[in-house]
Design a protein that fits this description.
This protein is 40% helix and 17% strand. With 379 residues, it is α/β, with parallel strands linked by helices. It has 2 domains: 3-221 and 308-378, Alpha/Beta hydrolase fold, catalytic domain (Rossmann fold), CATH 3.40.50; 222-305, 434 Repressor (Amino-terminal Domain) (Orthogonal Bundle). α15 (331-343) links the parallel β8 and β9 (349-354).
């Protein structure tokens, strides 16, 4: 365990005790509230993507959030503040998949601060908005009370949403000039996180006011997609999704669900990040990936339960952004399935389509449109 992680874990135990609940009273109890900042470090320009460093200052933070059971944990992320034209609004940026290992956290690894994420975040900063960019639970500096490693609950939407909301709280704790108003903007896994944030916010975000949600090529309808993934270049995502599911459902045994050739590759989840994971699993056949070549229907159903947004009413207007040439999140799933699922709640939902855009190009091409939409929500 790293020195930083050990220190965070010790602080958590000292503040919360070993019972898993908040201490009833006193200064320590106040410090353990979700959104409270344990530590923050001012970043040098060389520790931020160059486009962002030119227009913003950054802090790497460790803050309190909760897991899906409501137990307080710590998580890490970034708070980025515009150097010029700063106003009092906050946008939370939900990053796309980077991997499962701690080293895959964007706050500490420029290699996984994807170019499309830099473009999106730069667009937000140029409009004067402070950006809270969580790593999500289990990535970067993150700890449980018993000092055991905290895995990343990949694709577990209610975990992602908690990290997002509490990162906004943490940003306000660092800068009291920030108002309670916020918007969430996310891509892929982060788009899924944004949609889950809209569902969770009424019961979780307290005095914060969610003005809108932007979901760019968001993960949805995972139970529909799962049977089609084995034998395709995207099957590394399935391995990560099963690993994420196992963090919230102890009955999921990843090593049993995977065939031996796929089992043998599991160390790449700790040694590599997204690109390495996809590359290692891409050559496998369906039979080499999964025991029997398919997932049991019971597992598919559990993926749908934990990973699919639109299972409860959204609490804010939504902008869906989707490219028609997306091979990771198919256009037909977003436009033909997710959109009507959200509309069934009589919610304010818009779909912005970018013809010919793939999974990453949709982010680049939508920067201006997303900025205008968010500005309208804040005004």
């Amino acid at each position: 365990m790293s020195t930083v992680r050990m220190r965070v874990a010790v602080v958590l135990v000292a503040v919360l005790g070993t019972g898993g609940g908040l201490v009833a009273a006193g200064p320590a109890a106040a410090a353990a509230a979700p959104g409270s900042v344990l530590s923050d470090t001012i970043l040098k320009a060389t520790e931020l993507p160059s486009d962002i460093a030119r227009i913003a200052t950054g802090k790497r933070i460790v803050y309190y959030t909760t897991d899906v059971n409501g137990t307080v944990i710590s998580a890490s992320g970034l708070v980025l503040t515009p150097k010029e034209g700063k106003n009092n609004k906050t946008v939370a940026w939900g990053h796309g998949t980077t991997g499962l290992a701690d080293k895959c956290a964007p706050s500490g690894n420029l290699a996984v601060f994807w170019p499309e994420a830099v473009a999106a975040v730069t667009g937000l900063l140029k409009r004067g908005w402070t950006v809270a960019a969580p790593d999500y639970a289990g990535l970067g500096v993150s700890a449980r009370l018993d000092n055991t490693p905290l895995p990343h609950p990949y694709f577990i939407g209610l975990s992602e949403a908690r990290a997002v909301i509490d990162s906004v709280r943490a940003a306000r704790n660092l800068d009291r000039q920030l108002s309670t108003q916020y918007v969430v903007d996310g891509h892929s896994e982060g788009g899924q996180a944004a949609l889950f944030t809209s569902e969770l916010a009424p019961s979780y975000d307290g005095d914060l006011v969610l003005r809108g949600v932007v979901a760019i090529a968001p993960v949805s309808n995972v139970d529909y997609l799962a049977p089609y993934i084995p034998g395709t270049p995207n099957q590394g995502y399935m391995v990560m999704a099963l690993t994420g599911l196992a963090t919230v459902d102890p009955s999921i045994k990843v090593e049993t669900l995977l065939a031996k050739p796929a089992d043998d590759l599991l160390p790449v989840l700790e040694s590599g990040c997204l690109v390495e994971i996809l590359d290692r699993y891409a050559p496998l056949t369906a039979q080499q990936l999964l025991t029997g070549g398919t997932l049991p229907q019971s597992v598919v159903d559990k993926l749908g339960r934990w990973d699919n947004p639109a299972q409860s009413p959204p609490s804010a207007p939504i902008l869906l952004v989707q490219g028609t040439a997306d091979a990771a999140v198919p256009y037909d799933v977003t436009a033909g399935m997710l959109l009507p699922e959200l509309q069934a709640y009589s919610s304010s939902v818009e779909l912005k389509v970018y013809d010919g855009a793939d999974h990453e190009q949709a982010v680049f091409q939508s920067v201006s449109d997303v900025g205008k939409w968010i500005a309208a929500r804040f005004s």
